[in-house]
Amino acid sequence: MPTTAPLLSRPRRARRPGKPTAHKTRYVRPRAGGGRQKSKNRKQPAQILLGIVFIVALVAFFDQASIQPAKLLSVSDGDTLRVSLDGREVKVRLYGIDTPEYKQPYGSAASEALRGLVANREIEVKERDKDRYGRLVAIVYADGENVNRQLVESGYAWWYRDHATFNVPLALAEFSARRNDRGLWQDEDPTPPWEWRSKRR
Q1: In the chain, what are the domain boundaries?
Q2: Residues identified as active-site
Q3: Full-prediction pTM beyond 0.70?
Q4: 78: Cβ–Cβ under 8 A, 6 or more apart, which residues?
């Protein structure tokens, strides 16, 4: 039986610099000057930062432009008042807070607290929404101070989480009132007004 001739292995050829092997990607010779050239379309960090600053300034401008002067007419309860806005009588519901109802503990005290914050002061409102009753939901300012936050911080209102979920200033104001037992937080377990209302429907 004839024997098979042994397989002759080819001599390995020396690899020249820059020549690709079978398992590597295609070799690309570097351009003159070294390194990969930067894309001309890539924005510089300074330009990006300038754009961000411009957008923030624009948002702040329009946010301030939405504040309108108003004249106080009356206080309805702890979180509602009537104002004259552009010659129209408007009922305003304070945004992001909820005060005790009249029949709840601190209900009348909350109304007196609101009256004390807005009476004989320069009033401004910043509209946020309109509720199902047609009331203007707004942040109210008295002599430049945020009345909504002041009511919460003094312990006469709750931070209304369902309607102002990510409002950090109101959250911190309530935390401060709770910690220092201000207003309604002097009670051991005060009932939020939304729970009080739901039990009476």
Answers
A1: 67-199
A2: 93, 101, 135
A3: no
A4: 99, 100, 107, 110, 111, 113, 114, 151, 156, 157
